């Protein structure tokens, strides 16, 4: 091996780890899944909203257990746009139903957004304004 090439390889071998050690480390914020109950509506073609929704509660990403479902509030005053793999969950089949949506809350949007991980029916119809919550 050429001596100059050898010296360059040694210098790079020492410099790269030193440069990496000086790079700023960005702290990654962990986003926890939540569960929200509300009325599923299509506000525009392909745009799904959860309206009259409960406040988000800490949860898992999986479909709710019977015990968890019983403990969730049935409605609220929140509104969330559902994003992500919404086609996977056949949302048209749940239009105007009360559902529990689990997902990851997205920050920085004007309207609350949930990246959906699970959709389960709570009731075949959304509660009316005069219904008890």
Helix residue percentage: 10-25%
What is the CATH topology classification name of the domain at 34-123? OB fold (Dihydrolipoamide Acetyltransferase, E2P)
The portion of residues forming beta strands comes to 35-45%
- Element string (H = helix, E = strand): HEEEHEEE
What topology, given as strand order, has the largest sheet? 1-2-4-6-5
Number of helices: 2
- Major β-sheet profile: 5 strands, mixed, barrel
> Would you tell me the structural class of the helices and strands?
alpha+beta
The overall pLDDT average reads: 83
- The level-1 CATH class of the domain at 34-123: Mainly Beta
What Rg do the Cα atoms give?
A: 24 Å
Got a strand count? 6
Shape label: globular
| Contiguous runs where pLDDT drops below 50 for at least 5 residues | none
- Roughly how many Å apart are the termini? 79 Å
- CATH structural architecture of the domain at 34-123: Beta Barrel
Oligomer state of the chains in this structure? single chain
Task: Please describe the structure with a list of short key phrases separated by commas or semicolons.
single chain; OB fold (Dihydrolipoamide Acetyltransferase, E2P); five-stranded mixed barrel; 2 helices; 133 residues; alpha+beta
Nutshell version of this structure?
The chain is 20% helix and 35% strand. The protein is built from 2 helices and 6 strands.
Structural features, described:
The protein has 133 residues and is α+β, with helices and mostly antiparallel strands. The chain has a domain at 34-123: OB fold (Dihydrolipoamide Acetyltransferase, E2P) (Beta Barrel), CATH 2.40.50. It has helices spanning 3-22, 66-71; strands spanning 34-44, 47-53, 57-58, 78-83, 98-106, 112-123. The chain has a 5-stranded mixed beta barrel with strand order 1-2-4-6-5. A hairpin with a 2-residue loop joins strand 1 and strand 2 (47-53). The mean pLDDT is 83.
């Amino acid at each position: 091996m050429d001596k100059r090439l050898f010296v360059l390889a040694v210098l790079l071998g020492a410099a790269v780890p030193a440069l990496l050690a000086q790079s700023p480390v960005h702290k990654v914020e962990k986003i926890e899944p939540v569960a929200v109950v509300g009325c599923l509506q299509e506000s525009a073609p392909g745009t799904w909203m959860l309206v009259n929704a409960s406040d988000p509660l800490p949860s898992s990403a999986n479909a709710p257990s019977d015990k968890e479902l019983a403990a969730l509030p049935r409605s609220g005053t929140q509104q969330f746009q559902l994003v992500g793999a919404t086609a996977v969950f056949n949302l048209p089949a749940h239009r105007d139903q009360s559902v529990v949506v689990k997902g990851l809350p997205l920050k920085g949007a004007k309207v609350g957004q949930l990246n959906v991980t699970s959709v389960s029916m709570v009731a075949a119809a959304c509660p009316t304004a005069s219904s008890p919550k």
